[in-house]
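Predicting holo structure, 5CA bound.
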Amino acid sequence: MRLSRYFMPILKENPKEAEIVSHRLMLRAGMIRQQSQGIYSWLPLGKRVLDKVNAVIREEQNRAGAIELSMPTLQSAELWQESGRYDAYGKEMLRIKDRQERPMLYGPTNEEMVTDIFRASVKSYKDLPLNLYHIQLKFRDEIRPRFGTMRSREFMMKDAYSFDLTREAAEHSYNKMFAAYLRTFDRLGLRAIPMRADTGPIGGNLSHEFIILADTGESEVFCHKDFVGFDIPGERTDFDSVEGLQAIFDKWTSLYAATSEMHDEAAFNAIPESERLSARGIEVGHIFYFGTKYSEPMGAKVQGPDGKEHFVHMGSYGIGPTRLVPAIIEASHDDNGIIWPASVAPFDVVVINMKAGDEACDDTCELIYAALTKAGKDVLYDDTDDRAGTKFATADLIGVPLQIIAGPRAVANGEVEVKDRKTGARETMTIEAAINRFVA
Ligand code: 5CA
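Done. Tokens:
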């Protein structure tokens, strides 16, 4: 991508409305724009990051055996009347009427709709377990949308829904998502700690929130320090192994960890003081097991091996991609801007032409840009005629992990500089070596 032809509206000044660093940096880097309260456009740079976050989420959901589909944002009120949540949900639900005066709503979550899909076609225990997910916009008319896309009214959610014959089988499905979440957040460069949590309007009695520790987090959390060093389940985790996944769950729930709603002061105080961690956190994921709460009123049942009909046991599993993007920034930035983990960086590398219009600089940059693009890298080429200082500031602000800097003096020697955004380390090398570093 040539910066001269891209759309990346950088702000020079700090936006006044931004109270936390991630919101400030997302606005300054031209990633998002507020369209009305708590409703955002994702501008091209932001969209790239969001897509990469979703790609990681998708890979780990698929690895754990979940199957992707796509459900609509607008739902019929009738479905929610069946479960009894239409009246219970309150003002957070945006209710709409269509031209025939039929009550509709903008979905805040999809338990009812997915249960409807399930009951229409699944009739036998032989088709279980089943876990269906999508990545879709949701709307919740939050009283206090704030911090940009961290808490917005329209937001994206990956929501998965599992169906099983028995409670035991449903617990295995829960553990699959539990392990998949640990892997997902780790791949996004985050240390998320599962904490016992309240179930709110989703319901059920088994629930964990995945929390990343951050001073700007909205939740108050309490946990054992050792969680910070726990091992993440590896790529070769066998998601079909009931015992294997139970062991992961048991390990990750063996120590105290709870949000303020579930906090047990006495249990926490039983931990030696030096091992207690009392902090603020950001909830990036939330998983629930709620048994037959939706399957019973909505008649979602299958025939079991005993020939009888059984209401299916369900769970739901949410991750907030549009919250994860600012959460990653909260965890990874410095005074100059964002520092993206490679897994979600909008570009793999930025090529900075320090003297656009200079033949040698132009030729060198074009050569590198073409070679890296051909090698399948996402390359941003700063071919603008901005001052070098502005270009460096922009490259640091947008947080691309590596910068290749081509200035007249180095280029005259057949060399460029490669800078690591995170460490700031700079290395001069031949043009060929710079290319090979990425291609090899
Ligand atoms: N149906 C369940 C799980 S699929 C559910 O709705 N869970 S939830 O309410 O906990 O939301 C799941 C995730 O969505 C949260 O962990 C959070 O990451 C994200 N999320 C929820 N509300 C917002 C919001 N207002 N803005 C941004 N992200 C949000």
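The chain has two domains: 7-71+110-338, 349-439.
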